[in-house]
Structures are given as structure tokens and as C-alpha cells.
Amino acid sequence: MVNYKDLGLVNTREMFKKAIDGGYAIPAFNFNNMEQMQAIIQAAAETKSPVILQVSKGARSYANQTLLRYMAEGAVEYAKELGWENPQIVLHLDHGDSFETCKSCIDMGFSSVMIDGSHLPYEENIALTKKVVEYAHQFDVTVEGELGVLAGVEDEVSADHHTYTNPDEVVDFATRTGCDSLAISIGTSHGAYKFTPEQCTVDPVTGRMVPPPLAFDVLEGVVEKLPGFPIVLHGSSSVPQEEVETINKYGGALKAAIGIPEEWLREAAKSAVCKINIDSDSRLAMTAAIRQTFVEKPAEFDPRKYLGPARENMKKLYKHKIINVLGSDGKA
Ligand code: G3H
Ligand code: 13P
Ligand code: ZN
């Protein structure tokens, strides 16, 4: 049993309170490998932004949960080496699917876990979330629950349509489970293919594709029922069109992919939305740089020569999100 405090990590409690009071959101970036982790920490250290390193089920099976935990411990020391005196880094389990998975992460030093019971019947979601909270709180680990279902793939559960969070359930859910934050469904979804061009309209000024509006009334309803309670948005990648174009220019075959406009996320971050999950944008940034290097330098076979530019491109993306979208720079 290792407590996250011994690793120099922090939980989300104070971080979220400050974010809500300050009208910004904390970036929750998924990581699966060293280059992603380095890019996240460099971006956070250079902007002095609190940051959540999150580990999905896919990441645990790809990279190994133990290794990722040691990388996060290393990230704290690395951040200090980069001149960040008091790094505010959370190690978070993304979409935990069982009590056992959450317990195993808590026991090995994660400072925050998500238990995703959103696909379960309401009472079962409450029972499971409460069980995780009771265990986690003994070690001061914070817990994110979820109400409502995002369209697309969540864990191994795939849903064709969104089931928006019902604002009438949130007080009962938060009170009975004791969770520290709540992920809600308002029309975002996981992955790069959130909206098709047919679902979008073209902005006459910028020429950009604008997706149908998110259910901001649901967010407002939730905030009204649970004032000051930390709210989480999953599926918040914006799918930068320049990365999609670079991927396709250098041999990729992505279909038209449209994400969540960054201005919408900026607005959400000013409300009680205090954690915004971004994974797909980083995947696109990494792939774009690697593809470009492969085409421009076909004789290169040293992985550092293509993973290095990939790391730089991800870092640029993370800094942009922190400064221009979430507004978390200078808050740690
Ligand atoms: O919630 C979804 C995240 O983007 C993680 O996806 O399980 O493929 O790593 P993954
Ligand atoms: P994106 O696929 O939009 O990046 O969402 C990531 C996410 O919600 C991780 O939990
Ligand atoms: Zn998610």
C-alpha cells in the first residue's frame, strides 16, 4: 500500500475548489507513454498549470498500470527539475470499471479515481460509486462519478445516442454516494469523430464547421441543483483541423472529423466545469508529426527523430489548451 502523498501527488479537492472560484478548468490529459507524459509535464511546468495525468483502461493494458504509476512519481521529480517548485499533479484513473480496479489504483498511489457506473441502472450506479468512495476516502483519494451516458464508446460499452444527465437526479446521486465530482453528459462524445460535416453548419465569418449546440441547459440545470459542485466534461477534444489536414497530407486517411469548438469549452470552464478531459487531440498531434517526419525524412530510423517532433507538437497543443481554452495557466 502506497499513499499518493508520499509520491508528491495531490488529490483534486483543493484544485477543483480553486478552479470553480477562479472560473477556469483543470486539464485532464490521458497518457500512455513517456513522450506524452514529458510533453504534459513540460507544458504544465512552463505555464504553471495544475494538471491531471489520467490513465485509461486501454493505457493500463498497453503500458502497464505499475509502470504508469512510477512514471507519474517520476513526473513530480521531473517537474521540480524543470523549475516548478510546487508541482500540482494528480494521478487519476479514467473510466474505472469496477471496485477492484479502483482499489488497485488507490493502493498503488493514484490520488484520484473515476468509477464509471453510468451504464448501470441508477441504484446500481449509486451502490458501486458509494462503495468506491467509502474505500477511497479512507486514504483521502478523491472520486469522480458519472451520471448520463455519452454517445460512442465508453469503456467497452458502446451507445448510439446520448442519454443526457437528468438534473433532477444529481443531488440524490451526489449526496448518497459522497462523490467529489460528477461527470455529466451534455452531447460531447469520445474519439475524433464526434460530428459529421452533415451535422454541422458553416460559420460564414471563419468558414469553420460548427456542430449542433451542446445541451448547455442541462449543464445549467445541474449547476442550479448543485451549486459549487465540481463538474467534469469528458469527450472534450476539439479535433484541430490543421492536425487532421497534416495527417491526410502525409499519407493518412482520416474521414472528416469535427470536435467541440474551443470557445464552447472556454465558456464551460468559466462555470462549475472544473475538469476537462482531452485525449484524442493529443493522439492527432502525435500522429501528424510522426507522419510528416516519415514522409520528409524517409531515411530516418532513429525513433527519437520522429518521437521528438511528436513530443514537441503535443507540448504545443497542451500549452495552447492550458492558456487559451482552460485558463489554468499561472494557477499552480
Ligand atoms: O475515455 C476514453 C479515453 O480517450 C481513453 O481511451 O481506453 O483507448 O485509452 P483508451
Ligand atoms: P476525447 O476523446 O474527446 O479526447 O475525450 C477524452 C476523454 O473523455 C477521456 O476520458
Ligand atoms: Zn472519458
Walk me through the structure.
This protein has helices spanning 13-22, 34-47, 57-63, 65-81, 99-107, 122-137, 170-177, 216-225, 241-249, 262-269, 280-296, 303-326, and strands at 26-30, 51-55, 89-96, 112-115, 142-147, 152-154, 157-159, 181-184, 201-202, 209-210, 231-233, 273-278. The protein has a single domain (8-325), classed as TIM Barrel, CATH 3.20.20.70. With 332 residues, it is of the alpha/beta class. The two termini are 28 Å apart. Helix content is 45%, strand content 15%. The strands form 3 sheets. It has an 8-stranded parallel beta barrel with strand order 1-2-3-4-5-8-11-12, surrounded by 10 helices. A two-stranded antiparallel ribbon has the order 6-7. Glyceraldehyde-3-phosphate binds at residues 30, 56-59, 94-95, 190, 279.
CATH-derived architecture: Alpha-Beta Barrel
Taken from the alpha-carbon principal axes, the silhouette is globular
> What's the mean pLDDT score?
96
Number of helical runs? 12
Order of helices and strands: HEHEHHEHEHEEEHEEEHEHHEHH
Bound molecules: glyceraldehyde-3-phosphate, 1,3-dihydroxyacetonephosphate, zinc ion
Might you state the CATH topology name? TIM Barrel
Rg result: 19 Å
Percent helix: 40-55%
Structural class: alpha/beta
- Which strand order spans the largest sheet, edge to edge or round the barrel? 1-2-3-4-5-8-11-12
Tally of structural domains = 1
CATH H-level superfamily: Aldolase class I
Number of strands: 12
First-residue to last-residue Cα separation:
28 Å
Main sheet makeup: 8 strands, parallel, barrel
**Uncertain residue segments:** none
How much strand content do the residues show?
Answer: 15-25%
The CATH class is Alpha Beta
